[in-house]
Write a structure and sequence with these properties.
This protein has four helices and no strands. The protein is mostly helical. It has a single domain, classed as Helix Hairpins (Orthogonal Bundle).
Length: 123
């Protein structure tokens, strides 16, 4: 049975509003998101300037966007864990640590993609 609620363009507009609210909340409350957004803004001109093909652009810019996506997911996990309970629990700590590890791996991905691209471009 389908969920009741808006359909069509109204659903799309509502979803866009929720997404924008999420981005505003992440920017306002999550310093890591702001730092990673700054990284994207600093490296984005370099990605555009360095890219020789559309695939180059996709890899360089996509690796940066992936960090923001993973950070948003990590922040959502942390918010839900904090809402569920303020007391320390092994599973809550594990969930937060795993989310943090995902962010770290996405940053490592940026380092690897950009390093390999720069090595190839300048060697």
């Amino acid at each position: 049975m389908p969920k009741p609620g808006a359909t069509g363009i109204t659903r799309i507009l509502n979803a866009t509003g929720y997404s924008m609210a999420g981005l505003r909340a992440a920017f306002r409350y999550e310093s890591a998101f702001r730092q990673e957004l700054a990284l994207l803004l600093v490296l984005l001109p370099g990605a555009i300037w360095l890219s020789h093909t559309i695939v180059d652009s996709i890899l360089l810019i996509g690796s940066l966007l992936l960090v923001l996506i993973v950070e948003l997911m990590n922040s959502a996990i942390e918010a839900v864990v904090d809402l569920a309970s303020e007391e320390l629990h092994e599973l809550a700590g594990r969930a937060k640590d795993i989310g943090s590890a995902a962010v770290m791996i996405s940053l490592l991905n940026v380092f690897i993609v950009w390093s390999l691209y720069l090595y190839r471009a300048f060697s």
